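The authors assume throughout that readers already know how a fold can be written as discrete tokens. Each protein is reduced to its one-letter sequence and a matching series of backbone shape codes. I therefore recommend that a typical entry be quoted early in the introduction. For illustration, here is how one protein appears when written out as sequence plus structure tokens:
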Amino acid sequence: MSIKIIAEKVGASPATVSRVLNNPDYRCSKPGLRDKIWKAAIELDYTPNMAARNLKLGVNFEEHKIHYINVLMTRADAKQSDPFFSEILHVLETEIHKKGCILSNLWYRSLFSNDARCETENIDRVIRSMYEETGGKTDGLVIVGRSSKLALEGFVKVFKNVVIINRNSSEYNVDEVLCDGRKIARTAVDYLYSLGHRKIGYVGECKGEVRYSGYVEALGSHGLEPMPDYVIPTRRTESDGYDSMLKFLRSDDCPTGIYCANDITAIGMLKCLQKHKKHYPRPSIIASDDIEEAQFSKPMLTTVRVPADDMGRFAVKILLDRINGEHTSVVRMELESKLMIRESCQNVSESLWSDYCI
């Protein structure tokens, strides 16, 4: 599949497509174009593979063994993914190729992030099926997103060398690069509290999710009780964020500040506020991830930045280090999150403002 075909599909120049596919830090002048290019590339089965290209051209890799790396996305759907995980994937693909390795398979399997399903379904058979798809060309596996303990045990048995990128710790079951979701949530809630908010809501996944646990713990540290009516469990999509905000606005007691577990859901909430800005009060909204779209919303989204680029790069380094026998103990690397103060949060006394728009 050529770059030219991808360019025609998304309405961009081949040069722009090439820059996006080969540089995870490249930012298009048109918002959303980068994600469109990557979505088209995945749909068309295009994988920019520098190692394979060099092999085809006869480049000698005597001093560097070619490793085959697989990537598993557990918290994203191939057709409608969370942009945060897409950004990590872009970094992984580029970094794998920079290291002279081959990305042999990319899977989307939400099954592995669901503890209940992993206990009832034959996950060992699913994992063996994935291994068979590699045709034996696998030296390591990168898991992006939460994975159940049962699944991790199965992956280690079959794929041997495994690293996970996550916000929920694997509890030292495999090598991991972590940005602690509990600390992220505490940062978000603490910021809302500092602005005078005492009626603080939560939107996002709850069961087995450390960001929800962090939200509850942060409330407790300020002497606040979690209110069931202020919590809306939901999926990580823009449309679910829109619906969640509508539920809050139509309730008898809407929180003045809301922590949304991820950016794309929060953007849906902002769009809901835009549509109904003349009829309801406007709560402050803070999220976590800091995806590209967070800087294009109006008001710009206040969020807790998770360093997706560094997480992807360190994951590849740790995996290759294990593949090459440089370490045998389980490695846990925790990266720091950062509060990005923008415009979607106001002091509780100033929250009835009217310029929410996207």
User: Anything to note?
Assistant: The domain at 181-305+339-350 is CATH 3.40.50.2300 (Rossmann fold). The longest strand covers residues 102-108. The chain has two domains: 3-180+308-336, 181-305+339-350. The first helix runs from residue 3 to 10.
